[in-house]
UniProtKB/TrEMBL annotation:
InterPro entries: SLC13A/DASS. One of its GO terms (cellular component) is plasma membrane. Signal peptide: none annotated. The chain crosses the membrane at residues 39-56, 99-128, 148-167, 188-212, 232-248, 269-288, 300-320, 363-383, 395-415. It is found in: Membrane. This is Tonoplast dicarboxylate transporter. It is a multi-pass membrane protein. Keywords: Membrane, Transmembrane, Transmembrane helix.
Length: 416
């Protein structure tokens, strides 16, 4: 006999079900086409995942978007997903792989675009200010000026790879039998309009993005932070907007707020502890002299051109990250690269940025990141699928970084 859920658990489950139902129907109805166009549907799924991952950590983004993706796949015949031998069954299985891989990789790619997208970027900012406090800090807007173009290049490569490898001329015909736009729109209309709480969270979220982007603009246009003599940072804005969630009512009769401490306790606080541990390990590496010993192995880069230094650092980090999490890789690699930059006489960011980006190119194995584990755990993909699809993305990432860092990165971070 199934266990009875507590009323609060039932309420939470209903909210999550409504979100997933609304999300998968909106994405499918907007992008599927009539008849179904698989490449546009993949664009909608991957694009939505990438955008969300820009503003929240990529692991929660994957956890949130994977049920939306699998909700779309549940409209396809289960017998063909599990072992049908016909051509239609193969098309369904191939498209299902593309959807799951798209969510996993788009989440990782979107996280590169902003400081809030992944812990690796936050670790980079923390270690940069720790090792080089006299240097100009990396801000939200400066990193996004470099990270967003990098992410867009990888996103185009992801979409092209999925379309070429997993979509054929027959895919649209097969999917059209199960995905109908008019039917999806009728189901979506039954969910009703956005609730007051959803609108308020969206408004707070939009305000947070605007404040992040306008705090510091250019040398000629300082941004709103000048009103406070530059004594406010991105963290100040985040705390202020998060506080509003505890104040604004959700529109319920019982006086419920958009956020309360009961929900807040369930956040992934271990990520914060991991970041703090990373800073402590970095100081330990520096104080013990271990960075000098380990960085000597990369001493051959002394005198090498920028076009050679960046890809080597990216590949070095990208190899390690396939066997450990991206945050752990960034924590271990960045102290070495920071000391190496000082010892060989190059700008440290020419090594540290590739180290942080390379740690996020964990596309080949499930062990590379928690997001990979989430996708692998769905049962739709295998390790072979990840290797075959992830290898081209890894190559594109290294090549894109090789050309973007000495050009755009030099302008954004002042490495000239």
């Amino acid at each position: 006999m199934p266990a009875t859920l507590h009323p609060d658990q039932q309420k939470k489950k209903l909210k999550l079900t409504l979100f997933r139902s609304r999300s998968d129907k909106q994405i499918t109805a907007l992008f599927c086409g009539d008849p179904v166009k698989p490449h546009l549907l993949l664009l909608g799924i991957c694009g939505t995942t990438m955008f969300i991952s820009m503003w929240i950590h990529n692991t929660p983004c994957t956890v949130m978007m994977m049920p939306v993706a699998t909700g779309i796949l549940q409209r396809l015949p289960r017998d063909e997903l599990e072992g049908g031998s016909g051509s239609d069954a193969r098309e369904v299985r191939r498209f299902s792989k593309a959807v799951v891989l798209g969510v996993v990789y788009a989440s990782a790619i979107g996280g590169m675009a902003t400081l809030t997208g992944t812990g690796a970027n936050i670790i980079l900012v923390g270690m940069w200010s720790t090792y080089f406090p006299e240097q100009h800090p990396i801000t939200f807007s400066s990193w996004m000026s470099f990270g967003l173009p990098m992410s867009l290049v990888l996103f185009v490569a992801l979409w092209a790879t999925l379309c070429l490898m997993y979509c054929s001329k027959n895919t649209g015909r097969v999917l059209s039998a199960y995905l109908d736009r008019s039917h999806l729109r009728r189901e979506l209309s039954l969910l009703g309009p956005m609730a007051f709480a959803e609108k308020m969270v969206l408004a707070v979220f939009g305000g947070l993005i605007v404040l992040w982007m306008t705090r510091s603009l250019t040398n000629d246009i300082p941004g709103w932070a000048v009103l406070f003599d530059g004594k406010v940072g991105d963290g100040t804005v985040t705390i202020m907007m998060a506080t509003l969630l505890f104040i604004i009512p959700s529109g319920k009769d019982d006086g419920e707020k958009l956020m309360d401490w009961g929900k807040c306790r369930k956040l992934q606080w271990h990520i914060i502890l991991l970041l703090g541990a990373g800073f402590a390990i970095a100081d330990g590496f520096k104080a013990s002299g271990l960075t000098d010993i380990l960085s000597s192995g990369l001493g051959f880069l002394k005198g090498a051109p920028a076009l050679a230094i960046a890809p080597v650092a990216c590949l070095f980090s990208g190899l390690i990250t396939e066997f450990t999490s991206d945050d752990a890789t960034t924590t271990l690699v960045l102290p070495l690269l920071a000391e190496l930059g000082k010892s060989i006489g190059v700008h440290p960011l020419l090594l540290m940025v590739p180290g942080a980006i390379g740690a996020q190119l964990s596309f080949l194995l499930p062990t590379g990141s928690p997001g990979n584990v989430v996708g692998f755990g769905t049962g739709y993909i295998t390790i072979k699928d990840m290797v075959v699809t992830g290898m081209p993305l890894k190559v594109v990432g290294v090549v894109a970084l090789t050309f973007l860092l000495p050009t755009l990165g030099s302008l954004v971070f002042g490495m000239a």
